[in-house]
Amino acid sequence: MNETLYLSRLQHYLYCPRQFALIELEGVWVENRFTAEGQVLHQKVNEREQVRRGNIRTVSALPLASESLGIEGIADVVEFHRDDDGPESAFPIEYKRGKPKSHRADEVQLCAQALCLEEMLGQSISAGALFYGETRRRQDVTFDQALRDLTLQAIDECRAIISTGQTPAPIYEPRKCRGCSLMDICQPQSLGRHVHVADWLARQVKED
């Protein structure tokens, strides 16, 4: 049986495989301004609460799990929409600091929540939303096949790193690295070398 993988780890992996490994394998974590701002944003939804307004029931801090995928975590908010007398349909919402990003890490984390909800509730979930603290707006996310495939791929690749027990070498990307709270520990400028992570991971799995 695979060890449980936490949903938030997928976001770390998509942002940087080395960051994921430092947290997952080596237990490293350091706060910075960006992570602190994220914590403040999440304080509003960290307590379990259930509110109903009209045909929408809103549940915050909802525990999620998928036994088949071996993942679990906490959904910031899940709205349950009911049309007339039909069954409720789930709509997960993840709160993030900052603004929408060019990469899909946030979308993958949200999609993983949807996969958990689908297994738990026995229903298909077509969409959710990301709420960004800087824009104060929801960004709707459609759980299409491409995003589902990317999410499943990320889960598999996280497990591959865990199975090797080895942390990928750093690759210095200025824009990403400067915003990472683990930069001083990671030392990407002094230790980094130009190795494609996919090549590194494939080599480690082959050697294992």
Automatic annotation (TrEMBL):
The keyword Aminoacyl-tRNA synthetase does not apply. It is an enzyme of class 3 (hydrolase). Keywords: Antiviral defense, Exonuclease, Hydrolase, Iron, Iron-sulfur, Manganese, Metal-binding, Nuclease. Mg(2+) or Mn(2+) required for ssDNA cleavage activity. Its cofactor is Mg(2+); Mn(2+); iron-sulfur cluster; [4Fe-4S] cluster. GO terms for molecular function: exonuclease activity; iron-sulfur cluster binding; metal ion binding. CDD domains: Cas4_I-A_I-B_I-C_I-D_II-B. One of its GO terms (biological process) is defense response to virus. Its EC number is 3.1.12.1. It comes from the Bacteria. Residues 8-187 form the DUF83 domain. CRISPR (clustered regularly interspaced short palindromic repeat) is an adaptive immune system that provides protection against mobile genetic elements (viruses, transposable elements and conjugative plasmids). CRISPR clusters contain sequences complementary to antecedent mobile elements and target invading nucleic acids. CRISPR clusters are transcribed and processed into CRISPR RNA (crRNA). Belongs to the CRISPR-associated exonuclease Cas4 family. PANTHER family: CRISPR-ASSOCIATED EXONUCLEASE CAS4, DNA REPLICATION ATP-DEPENDENT HELICASE_NUCLEASE DNA2. This is CRISPR-associated exonuclease Cas4. The lineage of its organism: Bacteria, Pseudomonadati, Pseudomonadota, Gammaproteobacteria, Moraxellales.
